[in-house]
Structures are given as structure tokens and as C-alpha cells.
Amino acid sequence: MYPPLISEQYIDAGSQRLYAIGIFVLIQAVKLYELFQIHYENKLDMELAFAFKYMVIEGLYLFLLPVFRIPWLTFTPATTVILIIGCSITTIALSAASTFPLAATLSAIGRALYDRELSITEHRVRAKDVVHGSDHISGRHVVHILPESTAKLNPYGDVFCLDRTTSTPAYVPMRLNATEPGAVQLYHVNFDDSSYELLNFTKRELRKWTEFVSSESVGSAEAGARAQNSKIYDIKLPLSKPGLYRLAKVSDTANLNVKIHPADVVLSYCPSAAIRGGTSPSNSAGLAQDRCIGALETPELVIDGVPPLRIKYSRSIQGRDLMFAVQSIQPDRFSSPLLQGRLPRDGKVWHAGETLEWANAEKVKISLDTALNQVGRWAYMIDEVEDGLGNLVNYSKIFENKDREESPLLAKKGLNYGFLVHPRPSIRYVSCDPEKPVNLAKGKAANVPLQLSGTLDEGPYQVLLQYQPLDESDEDGDTGKVVAAPRQLELNMRNGMERLRIDKPGTYTIQSVKGKFCDGDVLESASCLALTPAEPTVSVKFEDIEDKCVGSIGVTADLTLTGTPPFRLQYQVITNRQHVKTEYLTIENTRHQLQFRPEKAGHYTYEFYMLSDNLYQNIQLDRSQFRTEQTVKVLATAGFAPRSLSSRCCTGDSAELDVDLHGTGPFTLTYETVHGNKRTQHVIPDITGERYRLTTPPLTKGGTYVVALLSVEDGNGCRRALSEADAHVEVRRQRPAAQFGAIDGRMNVKGLMGQKVQIPLRLTGEAPWSITYVHKNASGGAESSTTVMKHRPNGEYITVSDEGLYEITDVRDAYCPGDSTASSKSAFEVSWFDRPSLELVASERLAFKEARYAVSKDVCEGEEDALEIALYGAPPFSVLYEREYIPSPGESGSSSSLLSTTSGSKPVKFDLQAATKYANIQMETSKYGRYRYTLRGVSDSVYEDKSLLAAFEPVVVEQTVHRRPEASFVNPGTTYRSCWKAEVEDSSIEPIKLRFSGVAPFAVTLEVKHENEGQSETVTISNIREKVYSLRSIYAGLGLGKHVITIAHVRDGRGCTRSKQEHVTVMVADVATIVASSPREDYCVGERVSFVLTGVPPFEVEYEFNGKRQRATTHSPFSRLASSAGNFTITSVKDSASTCKVNLSEKLTKVIHEVPTVKVSEGTSIVSDIHEGDRAEIVFTLEGAAPFAFTYTRSERAGHNKYRVVETHTVTDVYEDSYSIFTSMEGVYEAISIEDRYCRARIGS
Length: 1245
Known about the structure:
Elements: H1 13-40, H2 47-64, H3 77-95, H4 101-113, E1 117-118, E2 124-125, H5 127-130, H6 133-136, E3 137-138, E4 140-145, E5 150-153, E6 161-162, E7 170-177, E8 181-189, E9 196-201, H7 203-209, E10 210-213, H8 221-226, E11 232-239, E12 243-252, E13 259-261, E14 264-269, E15 272-276, E16 290-292, E17 296-297, E18 300-305, E19 309-317, E20 320-329, E21 362-367, E22 370-371, E23 376-386, E24 392-394, H9 395-398, H10 408-412, E25 416-422, E26 426-429, E27 438-439, E28 446-453, E29 461-469, E30 487-493, E31 497-502, E32 506-514, E33 521-522, E34 527-531, E35 537-547, E36 551-562, E37 567-575, E38 579-587, E39 591-596, E40 602-612, E41 619-620, E42 627-632, E43 637-640, E44 646-649, E45 656-662, E46 667-675, E47 678-687, E48 691-695, E49 703-713, E50 719-721, E51 727-731, E52 737-740, E53 748-751, E54 757-764, E55 769-777, E56 783-790, E57 796-800, E58 804-812, E59 827-832, E60 837-840, E61 846-850, E62 853-856, E63 859-860, E64 866-872, E65 877-886, E66 908-914, E67 918-922, E68 929-939, E69 955-962, E70 966-969, ...
Parallel strand pairs: 3-87, 4-88, 5-13, 6-14, 16-25, 26-33, 27-34, 44-51, 53-59, 62-69, 63-69, 71-78, 80-86
Antiparallel strand pairs: 1-2, 4-93, 5-7, 7-11, 8-9, 8-12, 10-11, 12-14, 15-18, 17-22, 18-21, 19-20, 19-23, 23-24, 23-25, 26-28, 28-31, 29-30, 29-32, 32-34, 35-36, 36-39, 37-38, 37-40, 40-41, 40-42, 43-45, 45-48, 46-47, 46-49, 49-50, 49-51, 52-54, 54-57, 55-56, 55-58, 58-59, 60-64, 61-62, 64-67, ...
């Protein structure tokens, strides 16, 4: 990196950088100043030179800056070029005032910051500094009306009371206005005997209790204005005795009596309340804070104060608060004016001879009898108490930050009272009573459960029982004799389910239960009987079972038992003296018969060896006494297999049943079928094997068939009758059926095309069902068959997605095939709602090229156009369409076919919402080119799903938007010069050239503004076929002066138009002349004296002001601010078109007069204090040329430092230099305007 061109020994790098930036900022400041001068003096023809000048200066500066190699400011060539281009663009934009609003904005800012203009003396002054309303209107007069001195006790109407617990007095205010207090005398009337005494307060005492009150706090705005200079005092008088107080005498510091407003203050002791706890004989808890449920509590409220009293108290049970209010609390036979309402806040409340005993505080007691019917914490709290005078003591706010329910401080003050209500326990035997005694085995004990209702917190519980023994010789409890006196037992329990251990027979009776806080209740069962039964015994009697055909086929054992059921008897069966089988038998009764029937022949031994009952277990028996033997020959038997005992079949089918056979084959089996009252026997011979499948004849009637085995005959010819279980066959009376269910009472439904429809099914039979249905399409074409499985008789559906007729052709349930053709509901029709559709509404603007492709009539850029479409379906509709912009390569305006166009931009999607049958799509015309509108689909209130629009065939509409024509001046902003009354075809007159683009012929409308006349006119030139047109005819209608010609709009051969705001200026010159803008001869200081100049600017004007000659170079109009009074005369004028200087033979002279002045009270502020009925004089001093007219106002105070004008008066035809008015109204009097013969001034002007 190279060092800076200027060595840092002379100037460091930072300073060099600062100087370089400072030079660039200076260039910009000078540039903005010159730009401001150009626009301020309306030198628009200098804008081009300005732009070129600063483009060169800024370009050279930025080009040479890198040569100095200043750090951070050494730019690359590319950066330098970019900076030069940026500065040049900025300069051009600033100079183009007619097309770029920034210049005008800067000019306006400049005028606001530099608001100075030339005066008649050729000095720049501010217009607002020349004439200021406050320099010509000054002074004010304030009139105050002094108020009357009054005194009033308790001006706010408050209530006061004395605290019994302290000696603090009550401070009762007295308001005194317009004077200072000197002495106060009060009446104090005793409540008991109505006697009174006088209380005197001296000035020295009153000074300690006096407080000054500002006038803003006296109430209304009117009172505040009246008391602005009044002295208002509040004296807080300390009163320490109860009684009635009234002002007797009040005097001020001058010992003058003050007017007293009658007002009485009744001062009593503050109301108070306390709550005391009660005692209840039904409470057995024994603790002061604990109670038992069901008890009666009688807390007592004690209220002290002036009746009638009002109290609010709260009762909380387990945190749930309930508030109570008691009104009109008073002693018996009490009489008081307070019973009719509160005392009046103003005026007297007592007159001599009347009693005041009603104002004494009374103590009243109220008992609150409450049944304790809910367990938990109970708390009573006093919230507030109020006496008849309105004194309110709110305890809830005083102690709001404390735990009011359990606060010891509140309890000490008697403001709360609480206790805990406990539940009463109860106890009973769960599973023992005299009718259901407890049986004890000899030497054993039993645990009898006790049910105790209570919690651990309420325990431990003390249970007292009585034990009555039984006579040991008769332990069954029926006729026992008492052998000993009853004994008392005590049991301590902690939880709700403990057991009482019983090891001796007798009666155990619960006498009482007691918890930690409350006595409990003994519920039934309250007694338990315990017995000790004898050990169980059994006797057995064996008897053989004989058959006439085969002999012994088994043995019967008759069992007789004693003991406590149930019994458990264990025995063994020994086959052929070697196979041992051990069995046991549970017997619920004391007698039982057991049969042994072996299925196979052989030698069998039966012996019983062990007995148990409910109390005694495993008592060994003598096997020799309980044993028998026999040799058995087996008789044939037959029975149905367990799974064949119950079965089902359909009407007309045969049932198949499995039969198990035992004995010596072959067998002959006899059975019968029973249906209703009809029995049919059947014989099956020569059955071999132990399992045979029996097939019944066809069962043709519905219902239950009973198949009974009657007898079986074995191979030995022994026939045996059978009594085995019968088989039951359930024959279906009705075959399964299937039908479609109705939807809204119809066997058809309409749905949305493409969506699925559920057709309900109604099924009869046994689940599951197999259903086959066919579908016939709407056109009667091909059919398709489908089979589905269903598992519920109701609530099943067939889901379909095709339109047509659906018929059920076959149905089967779990057992039988069914019939679907017998029902009229075996067919269901499904159809679709018509899809919404749209079409283009035919019009002259649409040309249909194909069925779904049309071309709309061409429009011009910016014109409004719409495409009308017709919608069919259920409104409201939603139309989806796309708009695609295709840039036009030229201005031919021809529309390409749908297939040949190429997309120029990404399509923009729209969703048009329409509520009626017809809708309009707004066509895009803001940019020229070709547009393609593709209608993608439509949805309505039925077809709301946008995904269903895929099947819609798009509709395409194309439209060409033509570019609007252009018209501009070849040299915009140029000033053309012409002479007055010159020929149009004069070659010396330069034509105004116009450039057109578009399709010829053109018609252009020009707006010509005649600045001298302040009027405008329009000129239309038609049938222009040249692209560049020379305009000369415009000069013919121009008079002297400056004319601004602006292109209003242009129309081309297609009928398209465009508005334009380019302009040129035409100066029509003549010999320079000057005329006054107004025929007025007299002006005032601060006004502008203006003249109109004709000729070629700039002009040189010479004039005299008060004998001093001045020369000014100006443009038209020539205007100067009259900064002082005198005579202003124009002497000569010259323009820049010639060197002719016109000396005016008739001088243009204007007389400038001074602005008049009005002063109130010689321009000062005067305050006059008057009494009511007096008047004050207000003097207005006038300066100027008579006659005068002036306006003044009267204002009143409307708040702090705020005044409101209430009156405005105007005085006219005053020929003297002073004027006086007399007033008795309070307020501020000020002048707001003054006018003399020539001029006027106002406040704010």
C-alpha cells in the first residue's frame, strides 16, 4: 500500500480524510443552495446548466480523490465510476423540478428554514417580524369580587366517633372563608339531660389546628374563580366528649363576627362488637376447642353503639365462608329518629326541649343457636359493625393481613371464635351374632372382626365389653346355665378393622366405645356368641346293588355324620386287590348316600379311612369297621357324548349325535325323538365299538327336538333301560335373511360423485353372515358380484363408490343358508348429485374459436373490463381460475391461437367467491400484452372439496391489452419566445415539436395556461399521422406574457388514451410595461405591494421610497413587503429583450400606513378588587387614524392557569384616542383586535 501523496509529517491521515470529506460536503451544500435559489426565483430555464455544472465538478472531484491516496478514501476505478454515476443521477433528479418532486420538497424545506423576503428597502426581512399582533395589542385588566366571610361546622358532612379504648379526641373540621380565624365558641349538649356548656377556642389554639385550602379544591369552576384571592381555611377542632356540638359564635382576627351556617354534629362512642363462645350440655369432648357432631352451640354476639345497629359476621366451616348480616339491632321499646333514616348532613338535628337519649350508646346481645351438623373447623368472625349515625368499623380491613380464623389477637379482642367439630365413632361385630355364633375348636382360639368407624387422629379408641361364660356341660348355647358372674373386658383400638381374640365359649357384648374427643355409638350386631362343638363322627351301612340279569353291579354306602358341616370324607377303591384309587367326598348335610357302580367287571374293595369337618381336621377312622368287598359283573350302558348334548341345525336337515357305549357288544340301541307332543321311536341294531354316530331322520319343523336314549341291549341279551341325559337339537324356524336399511325413509340415496356411500344392512340369524350382492350400473350395463362378511345384525354397512342399483343375491349365517329375494328391501339405488358447472355468457365482446376457447375483444391499457360467467349448481360458488401474462412482442394486436402461444410468466391462481348464478371476473389491463384466463373448475355448497375439481375440463379465454400511446415534447421544459401579434408562419418563430408513439392517426389535447390572466384553455389537434409533429398554430391565440403549454392527453388510432404532464413555456414579449396588481392606493405595513411586468425577464425596476431611490432586478410579478410606512413610487422599468428603459409618465404611487395600536391599562396588567355592587373602570388607549373599532373579551378561570372566554364585545366609531368602560362583572378583560381607517391588527396575526 502506497503512502498518502501529502506526507503525514505535514498533515496526518485522519485530518486529510476529514478535509476531503469536508470539501465534498461543502460542494453538496453549495449545490443545494443554488438549487433553492433557482426554484425560489422560478428560474427554471437554468436547470440544465445547473445539472451540467455540478456533474463536472463532482466527477472531477471523485476522479482526482484517489490520486491523493488518503487511507479509506482510495477507491478502485470501478468504485469511482459507480460513485460518479450515482452523484450524476442525483444531480439530474434534483434539477428536474417538473418531473421529480424531491426538488420541490427541498425548496419547501428551504423556504421554511429561510423564510425571508425582500422589503421595500431592498433588505431581506421576515414577514412575521414586520407586524406582530402583540406589538399593537397589549395590557389587561383583572376584576375580582371579594367573597362574604362564612363559617360552617363539618362542611363535608362526615360522621365522627370516639374510641373508648383511647383518649384520642375526634377532630371535627370547620371551614372559614375570606378571613382568618380569631375565636370560636361551641355549644356542647349532653345526651342524658340535654344540658349544655360553651367551649371556647382562642386564636392561639386555633392557629395549631388551621390548614389553608387552595381555591382549586373548593368545588366548581365558578367557585374556584370567585375564590381565587379568597382565604379559605379548615380548622380541625378537637372534641373529646360525646354529645351534640353546634357553632355558637365565630369571629375573625379583627374581632368581627362571621356568618354561621347552621349545622349540628352528633359525636358518640364508636360502635364495637364481640363474640363469646357458648357451652352445650350435649358436648362431651371435654376440651374448650373441641366439639362433637350433633351437639348444640350457642355463641353470643355483643354489640355496643348507637341504635339501630348493623353487624356483619362470617361463619366458616372447613374453609367455606358464609356471610350473615343483621340489621336494625336495638333494645326493646327503643325510640329514635334514626329509625326513620340517617340524620341530615346539613342544618340542625336537635331543638331545645327535645331529648337526646337516643344518641347514647347501648349494648345489645344476640344469641346464635347452632346445631353442629358438619365435621370440621368452625369459626365465627366479626367483619364490620355500623351504628345508626353511620360510624362504620370494618374489622376485616383492619386485620386483613392476619389469619382471622385462628388469630390469638382477634380472639383476645373477641372478634373471632372457633372450635373443631369431631365425628362420633361407632362399632359393631362384622360376622358374629347370637344367631350366627363363632365355633371354637377345643384348645383353639378365634379372631372375631370388629368394625370401627373413625380415623387415626380421633383415636385411640377405648372399647368396653362384657363376657358372660356358659355352662361347660351344655356348650351348644341353648340351655346353658350361668356358672360365673359376667366379666368386663377392655379393648384399645387404633384402626377401623381390628379383631377380638376369643378362646373361651360364652357371650361377648359391646357396651360402649369412646374416642379421644367424643363418645361413640354401639351398632348391631353388638353381641357375639362363642361355642365349642364336639368332634365329628360317621357311621356307614353298606348294601349291594343287584341286577336280575347279571347279579351284583355295585354297592350303596349310607353315611350318617355328626359335627359341624361341611364334612370331608376320604376313601379308597381297590380293584382286583392291586389297583388303589383314593377319592374324597365333601358332604354339606349330616346324611348322605354314596353309590359305587364300576364300569368294568372285577373284584372291588371299598374302605373309608379319614374324616374332617369345619372345625376338626383329619380324624383317622378304623378301616376294618368302614370296609366292604364284592365281585362285580358290568351291565351295558349308553349315553350321549358331552359335545352332542346340545346342537343346532336347519329346517329339513338331519342331526348327527355321538353316543358312548359300555359293556359286552354287539349292542342294540333304542332311542326316540320328541317334538312338541309327538314322539317317534327308532332302533339301531348291531352296533360295535364304544363310540357310535347317530343320524336322526330329517327334522322338518322348527323348534327344539329332544333325542332320548331309551334302552340298550348287550351281546348277552341283557336289556337295560337308560336314564342318561337327553340331547337337545335346536332347529331353526326361520332361515337367515339380509336386506338393505332405509336412509331417511328411502331406499335410494344421493351422494357426491367420487365419494364413498355407506348402505346400511339389516340382518337376521346367527353371526357371522356371508352376504353376496351385485351392482348394476346406471346405464343398465355390466354387473359385478361381491361377497362380504358381517358380524352384527344392526349397524353394519356396505361401502360403495359407484352409481347404480345394488341387489342382495345370497346370504348365509353361522349355521344356515338364507334367502334374500323374499324381501322388498333387497335392492338399493345410489345416484350422484349433479356436479357444479360453468359456462361463458355469450356477448359481442367474446368470439368463440373452439368449444372451450374464446377470445375477448381487445382493450386499451388501464381500461376496465370483465368476463361474465354463468354458474350452475347450489350456491354459493367458488370458481378457481388462473391468469397468465404473455408479453406482447409488438403492437400488432393480433391474437395467436390457443395452441401456438407460449407462456410468458408463471400463472397466478385466484379463487372467486360468488353467491348468485352470474359472476364477473375482473380482467387485468394495468399492463399491456396478452393475457390468458384459464377457468380450472367450480365448487358449490354441495361439492365443497377442491380435490374433486380434477375432472373439470378447463375453459380458456384470451385477451390482448394494447399499449397506450405516448406523446411528448422533443425539447421538454424549453422556453420558446415570440412577439406579440407575430404571424404564425413566420420563419423566425421556432415550432414546438411533438413526438408520438403508437398507431396513427393521433389526436392530442394541449392545456394552455395564461399565467398573466390566471386562466387556462384546452386545444385539441386531430388527425396527426407523423411520429414527429411541428406545432405552429398554437402561437395564434397567445397574448402577451408567459404561457405554459402542457400535454393533457393523447389518443391513437385504436382509441387508447394516455395522460401526460410534460410542458414547455412560450414567452410572448412586448415592450416592457408595469401595472399594479390591485387598484388600491393605500396599504398597511406588513402587506405586499405587487406589480405585474410584461416583457422578457429579468426586469430592472427603479422606484422611490420616502425620497430614496432603489433599483431591483426581478421577475414578474414584482412584489415587495411593506416593512415601514411611507410613499412607494415606481419610476421606470426595463426588460432583457431590449435596452429600452421605459420612464413612466404617470407615476405609480402607493401610500403605506402604520398599523393601529390599542392598549388596555396603558399596556400593563392591573388587578381591581371590588365588593359586590361596585364597578371598575377599564381604559383602552388607541393609536392610529380615526375612526377606530376594537374588540375585547371577558374571561373566567376554568382550571389551573386556564381561562375560558365568556363574553366578546366590539366597539365601533371611536374618534378619540381613549375609551373607557365600567363593569361590575368579575373576570379578565383583554383586547383582541384593533382597526382604524386604513389598517387592522389581531392577536395572533
